[in-house]
């Protein structure tokens, strides 16, 4: 798991423990590996993350993909989170309370103004692919005053 980005990425996930906003539930993420443009985390599916039928909520899955693909961007020389342009998630199977999911995210290409990332979400116990996603991020020019 050793990489020059490991400490910085772990610090990002640690900051979610005291977050006051929407990303607070990501405090349950545990970093499994970090390398250049790649982050893999795992998280237990808890009652707070469920939809009415009792499985992992799709909005939670999308938010986790957003967070983990963004930290994959932070594990690059640019180390800039960018802003979301689009996020496409395909839901393939369900995750249930008590199960552990693994989110594996990587940067496909990062250019001057756009970055393209992808993520796969697996159920840990049987490696079943439960979601796959593409996330495009932009690096807008700074506005000078």
From TrEMBL:
Keywords: Acetylation, Cytoplasm, Cytoskeleton, Hydrolase, Lipid metabolism, Mitochondrion, Nucleus
Major location category of this protein: cytoplasm
Domain of life from the UniProt record: Eukaryota
Pfam families: 4HBT (PF03061)
Reactions that this protein is recorded to catalyse: hexanoyl-CoA + H2O = hexanoate + CoA + H(+); octanoyl-CoA + H2O = octanoate + CoA + H(+); dodecanoyl-CoA + H2O = dodecanoate + CoA + H(+); a fatty acyl-CoA + H2O = a fatty acid + CoA + H(+)
Coiled-coil region(s): none
CC per GO annotation: cytosol; mitochondrion; nucleus; spindle
Subcellular localization, as worded in the UniProt entry: Cytoplasm, Cytoskeleton, Spindle; Cytoplasm, Cytosol; Mitochondrion; Nucleus
Molecular function, one GO term: fatty acyl-CoA hydrolase activity
InterPro entries for this protein: ACOT13, HotDog_dom_sf, PAAI_dom, Thioestr_dom
SUPFAM superfamilies: Thioesterase/thiol ester dehydrase-isomerase
GO biological-process terms attached to the record: lipid metabolic process
All residue ranges annotated as the Thioesterase domain in the record: 54-128
Family membership: Belongs to the thioesterase PaaI family.
The protein's role, per its UniProt record: Catalyzes the hydrolysis of acyl-CoAs into free fatty acids and coenzyme A (CoASH), regulating their respective intracellular levels. Has acyl-CoA thioesterase activity towards medium (C12) and long-chain (C18) fatty acyl-CoA substrates. Can also hydrolyze 3-hydroxyphenylacetyl-CoA and 3,4-dihydroxyphenylacetyl-CoA (in vitro). May play a role in controlling adaptive thermogenesis.
NCBIfam families attached to this UniProt entry: unchar_dom_1
Quaternary structure annotation from Swiss-Prot or TrEMBL: Homotetramer. Interacts with PCTP.
PANTHER family cross-referenced by the UniProt entry: THIOESTERASE DOMAIN-CONTAINING PROTEIN, THIOESTERASE SUPERFAMILY MEMBER-RELATED
Protein name: Acyl-coenzyme A thioesterase 13
Organism: Ascaris lumbricoides (Giant roundworm)
């Amino acid at each position: 798991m050793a990489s020059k980005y490991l400490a910085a990425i772990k610090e990002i996930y640690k900051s979610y423990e005291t977050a006051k906003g929407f990303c607070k539930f990501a405090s349950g993420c545990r970093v499994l590996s970090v390398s250049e443009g790649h982050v893999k985390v795992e998280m237990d599916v808890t009652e707070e993350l469920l939809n009415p039928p009792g499985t992992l909520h799709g909005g939670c899955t999308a938010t986790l993909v957003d967070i983990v693909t963004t930290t994959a961007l932070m594990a690059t020389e640019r180390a800039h989170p960018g802003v979301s342009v689009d996020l496409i998630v395909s839901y393939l199977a369900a995750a249930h309370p008590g199960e552990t999911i693994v989110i594996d995210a990587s940067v496909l290409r990062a250019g001057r103004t756009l970055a393209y990332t992808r993520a796969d979400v697996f159920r840990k116990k049987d490696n079943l692919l439960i979601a796959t996603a593409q996330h495009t991020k932009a690096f807008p020019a700074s506005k000078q005053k």
